[in-house]
């Protein structure tokens, strides 16, 4: 598997897009606009809905040569043959994800504003480091704030792609890119847009050569 982690990283939100048809249409619009990495994030306990939605998103992402990452749930990632999983500091361990998903899986880890957490994630075999939140977030208003300096510090010392998250919009995206972020993880700034395809296109144009080939 050849994987380049770069560009727009859309994340679904079960409150913003509760209906499966609306979810699939919104994601397809973002894929048409150039998004090549998608995270399925649904905090509900509805296993059947989560499996059905994640399976449909896997097929859709495959159609567009895009990666599907599952938030929090290593076993759902395995069940739907997703490309990887995103783990927070309160989620399961990287080693456990690697054991279940194998060496080619993409494992991303939330490191907030912390260099020691980023260093630990790198040592434990993470594939990308997520930092944030950089701007006020409509989706997760209580996420701890991060300064742009952490992007510079991590990119200077750790050879992994950096994902910036939290309140990212077309207006502020260039700040995280200029600081050294390789991917922008976006929920509201993408999926709450009236024109998701056009917004994805504009985010994608901020990068060149974004792709995720499996
Ligand atoms: C790309 C990306 N970065 C950070 C997060 C947040 O993960 P976590 O801290 O586990 O919080 P939840 O998303 O699970 O509420 C993420 N999901 N994706
Ligand atoms: C899921 C999540 N994690 C964050 C963190 O800082 O770890 S911020 C966040 C929400 C991102 O959504 P939006 O683009 O709407 O702000
Ligand atoms: Mg989590």
User: Given the helix and strand composition, which structural class is it?
Assistant: alpha/beta
CATH superfamily: Aldolase class I
- Can you count the beta strands? 8
The number of helical elements comes to 9
Radius of gyration, in Å, reads 16 Å
Q: Bin the helical content.
A: 25-40%
Strand content: 15-25%
Q: What number is the mean pLDDT?
A: 95
CATH topology: TIM Barrel
What binds here, in terms of ligands, is: the ligand Cc1ncc(COP(=O)(O)OP(=O)(O)O)c(N)n1, the ligand Cc1nc(C(=O)O)sc1CCOP(=O)(O)O, magnesium ion
Protein name: Thiamine-phosphate synthase
Cofactor: Mg(2+)
Pfam family, one: TMP-TENI
Domain Thiamine phosphate synthase/TenI: 8-189
Give structural notes.
The chain has 214 residues and is of the alpha/beta class. The protein has one domain (7-205): Aldolase class I (TIM Barrel). Helix content is 39%, strand content 17%. It contains 9 helices and 8 strands. It has helices spanning 20-32, 47-63, 74-79, 94-101, 115-123, 149-157, 173-179, 188-191, 196-205; strands spanning 7-11, 37-40, 67-71, 84-87, 106-110, 128-132, 162-165, 183-186. An 8-stranded parallel β-barrel has the order 1-2-3-4-5-6-7-8, surrounded by 6 helices. α1 runs parallel beside α2. Mean pLDDT is 95; it is low at 209-214. Bound molecules: the ligand Cc1ncc(COP(=O)(O)OP(=O)(O)O)c(N)n1, the ligand Cc1nc(C(=O)O)sc1CCOP(=O)(O)O and magnesium ion (MG).
């Amino acid at each position: 598997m050849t994987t380049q982690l770069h560009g727009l990283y859309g994340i679904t939100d079960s409150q913003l897009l509760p209906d499966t048809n609306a979810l699939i249409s919104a994601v397809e619009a973002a894929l048409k606009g150039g998004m090549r990495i998608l995270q399925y994030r649904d905090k509900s306990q509805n296993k059947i809905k989560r499996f059905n939605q994640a399976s449909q998103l896997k097929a859709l992402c495959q159609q567009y040569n895009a990666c599907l990452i599952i938030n929090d749930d290593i076993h759902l990632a395995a069940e739907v043959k997703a490309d990887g999983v995103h783990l927070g500091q309160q989620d399961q361990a990287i080693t456990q994800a690697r054991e279940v998903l194998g060496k080619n899986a993409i494992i991303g880890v939330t490191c907030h504003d912390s260099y020691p957490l980023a260093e630990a994630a790198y040592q434990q075999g993470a594939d990308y480091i997520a930092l944030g939140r950089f701007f006020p977030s409509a989706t997760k208003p209580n996420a701890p704030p991060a300064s742009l300096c952490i992007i510079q510090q991590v990119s200077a010392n750790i050879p992994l792609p950096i994902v910036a998250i939290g309140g990212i919009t077309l207006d502020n995206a260039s700040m995280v890119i200029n600081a050294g972020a390789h991917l922008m993880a976006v929920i509201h700034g993408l999926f709450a847009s009236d024109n998701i395809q056009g917004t994805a296109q504009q985010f994608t144009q901020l990068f060149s050569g974004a792709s995720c080939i499996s």
